[in-house]
């Protein structure tokens, strides 16, 4: 797998997933490690999507941590990518191509994890997330932008990060 095709944030998430798996004493990197890593390294995409999808984030984190604790621990041994996680990374690449993006970004990883048969995908579905509303939230976040650089996630939702959206405040009746 060529990590040069991944954005910086996606690469950070994959590296963090390795650290998380090692920290738990796991021999394989699973989608759950990758999702927890995205929580830890991404401050733009995942928080926006979970808020938009009205996911109970503290509960999600609690269930995810319990799931990770339930995986078997192995002393020593070499850390490897599980077959499921490998498929997820490949699927993220396919999703990126279908979206005409040049790099695999965090939102591609999240969508690929959701489409997998992993426990975290089921946890998200149990929280009411569907592929349709996840894709709609991603579209809203990206506002038609394509991923053409390794720092693409930093440009998502820039207005809401650095300024007040007066239109939104007026619509919400919060503008004097």
Characterise this structure.
Residues 3-144 form the Clp R domain. This is Type VI secretion system ATPase TssH. One of its GO terms (cellular component) is cytoplasm. With 176 residues, the protein is mainly α. It has one domain (3-171): Double Clp-N motif (Orthogonal Bundle). Helix content is 61%, strand content 2%. It is built from ten helices and two strands. The protein has helices at residues 8-24, 31-41, 45-52, 57-70, 83-98, 106-115, 119-126, 131-142, 158-162, 166-171; strands at 28-29, 80-81. It has a two-stranded parallel sheet with strand order 1-2. α3 packs across α8, α4 packs antiparallel against α7 and α6 (106-115) packs antiparallel against α8 (131-142). The longest helix is centred in the N-terminal third of the chain and has 17 residues, at 8-24. The protein is globular and about 60 Å long. The model has no long low-confidence stretch (mean pLDDT 88).
């Amino acid at each position: 797998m060529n990590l040069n095709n991944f954005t910086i944030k996606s690469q950070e998430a994959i590296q963090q997933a390795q650290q998380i798996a090692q920290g738990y004493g796991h021999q394989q990197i699973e989608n759950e490690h990758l999702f927890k890593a995205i929580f830890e390294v991404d401050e733009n995409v995942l928080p926006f999507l979970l808020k938009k999808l009205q996911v109970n984030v503290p509960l999600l984190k609690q269930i995810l941590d319990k799931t990770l604790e339930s995986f078997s621990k192995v002393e020593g041994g070499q850390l490897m990518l599980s077959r499921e996680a490998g498929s997820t990374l490949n699927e993220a690449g396919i999703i990126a191509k279908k979206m005409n993006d040049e790099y695999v970004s965090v939102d591609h990883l999240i969508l690929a994890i959701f489409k997998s048969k992993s426990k975290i995908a089921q946890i998200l579905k149990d929280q009411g997330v569907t592929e349709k509303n996840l894709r709609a939230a991603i579209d809203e976040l990206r506002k038609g932008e394509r991923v053409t650089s390794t720092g693409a996630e930093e440009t998502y939702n820039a207005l809401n990060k650095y300024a007040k959206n007066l239109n939104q405040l007026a619509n919400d009746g919060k503008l004097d």
